[in-house]
Amino acid sequence: MEQTSKLRLGILGSGKGSNMAAIADACAVAGYPAEIAVVVSDVPGAGILDKARERGIRAEVLPPGRFRTKLDDAAERAYIGALQEARVDLVVLAGFMRILKGDFLLAYPERVINIHPSLLPSFPGLEAWRQALDYGVKVTGCTVHLVDQGVDTGPILAQATVRILEDDTAESLHERIQQAERVLYPQTIESLARGTLKVAGRKSRIIAR
Ligand code: GAR
């Protein structure tokens, strides 16, 4: 049966928001099966907030609490509350630089996805494009995956490759990876909504709740 209601996305980001903007542009195309319900950032003044508001998308800052790399318990409850209030079906991490823990993932089981700037499982963690360049690989890329409790470890949903050029710098390589991300992320969300994606051998589909 064809899905009728659009998937409601809750996008979390800490940075400039180029992935969010690409997803918003895709959502603006007639027939795209998702819409952005809310954007939440842990960083006041992050570019993602302006880019969302310019497009008429609700955008909120929620303080992360007392830790540097994760949300504390109260912050986690506030994030879940904001996403539930916006009736989010799928949580989309777009440069959200904090690890999500068990309670958050229990609130959205198999409904949290992330984009990472390498071909996982190679180069998890920070500045993955720089890690790839320093290692000397000839091809890298980006990965969309389901989020689990590890760092960049959940089941892989989609990947795109980016060739490393002789004269690449960290900056030039990062820019080409981000160009690939801006194509891959909206496509992957569309495939998830339409149920045309295989995850570890089984078809995966996220249905609006
Ligand atoms: C993206 O390149 C994304 O892959 C990366 O943050 C950037 C956010 O850019 N995420 C990670 O490194 C997560 N491990 P954006 O704010 O312009 O979308």
> What proportion of the residues form beta strands (DSSP E)?
15-25%
Biggest sheet: strand arrangement? 3-2-1-4-5-6-7
- At the fourth CATH level, what is the homologous superfamily? Formyl transferase, N-terminal domain
What structural category arises from helix and sheet content? alpha/beta
CATH hierarchy: architecture: 3-Layer(aba) Sandwich
Count of helix runs? 6
Radius of gyration: 16 Å
Bound molecules: glycinamide ribonucleotide
Counted beta strands? 9
Task: Write down the CATH topology.
Answer: Rossmann fold
Largest sheet: 7 strands, mixed
> Uncertain regions: pLDDT < 50 for 5+ in a row?
none
Number of domains: 1
Topology readout:
Layout lengths: L6 E6 L5 H10 L6 E8 L5 H8 L4 E3 L11 H13 L4 E4 L8 H6 L4 E5 L11 H8 L3 E8 L9 E8 L6 H25 L2 E3 L2 E3 L5
Parallel strand pairs: 1-2, 1-4, 2-3, 4-5
Antiparallel strand pairs: 5-6, 6-7, 8-9
The structure holds glycinamide ribonucleotide.
The site of glycinamide ribonucleotide has 15 residues, from helix 1, strand 5 and helix 6.
Structure description:
The protein has helices at residues 18-27, 47-54, 73-85, 102-107, 128-135, 170-194; strands spanning 7-12, 34-41, 59-61, 90-93, 112-116, 139-146, 156-163, 197-199, 202-204. The protein is of the alpha/beta class. It has a single domain, classed as Rossmann fold. A seven-stranded mixed β-sheet has the order 3-2-1-4-5-6-7, sandwiched between helices. The protein has a two-stranded antiparallel sheet with strand order 8-9. β8 (197-199) and β9 form a beta hairpin. α1 runs parallel beside α6 (170-194). Glycinamide ribonucleotide binds at residues 13, 15-19, 48, 94-95, 115-117, 152, 178, 181.
